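Researcher: Sit down with what I've pasted below and flag anything odd:
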Amino acid sequence: MRRIPQEQLSEEQQIANLQQLLEHKFSDVGLLECAVTHSSLAYERAQEHFAEEEVQPEKADRGNEQMEFLGDAVLGMIVAEWLYRKYGGDDEGRLTRLRAGLVSRRNLSRVAARMGLSNYLRLGRGEERSGGRNKAAVLADALEAVIAAVYLDGGLSAATSLVEREIIAGAKPTEIEDWKSSLQEWLQRNHKGRASYVPVAEKGPDHEKIFTVELRLASEVLAQSTASSKKEAEQECARTALEKLRSAEAEGVLF
């Protein structure tokens, strides 16, 4: 059967498909409709609706902005609890960095894009023309609003399932934590000097470069990593080195 693009479906069918994507059947679909309605469309509709009644459109519904506010708080609470349960023995600084990475606009926009949330957004004409469907801020805000909608309709357990499935489980360590900062903090705390990141190889055409980086402490190579960017390779090196050093520290064989 030929797949019909989302934009060619009715709003009702799009909402039905979005519920399947979120794995949550809404009792109040109005919550989900509000969550995917950008303020630009809400404003345009207000202008059209109130034109004859001489009511200021600024007093109308503002789209998903309020739900985004709630979703941000719900997301932060869920992520904080998950990190506490999984990494409760770590220092507060690391937990803070992990939480910041998971709830960052960059990460949320990436998750929203992966989910295909842009296909379900309801934008005003101007926002649509300006490419709003693919703007990181619009995607991240919409995802927070969707989390709020799921929370309001299904409670904390439903919102937790969504967050853990789409945001936490799908996150790569190099995307949610600044391992280089964590490593340097560990080295300073243990008086081990400063790590250096040395590029040792660069292969492939300009549009598909592969970089290999070594992490060195004094004259010793603690880790080596290959990735599509130097930054990613450095982060992976730092992660590997930090895990190695923490393991040695726990076993009492730290050099």
In short: Residues 55-60 have pLDDT under 50 and may be disordered. The chain has two domains: 8-173, 179-250. The domain at 8-173 is CATH 1.10.1520.10 (Ribonuclease iii, N-terminal Endonuclease Domain; Chain A). The chain is about 60% helix and 10% strand.
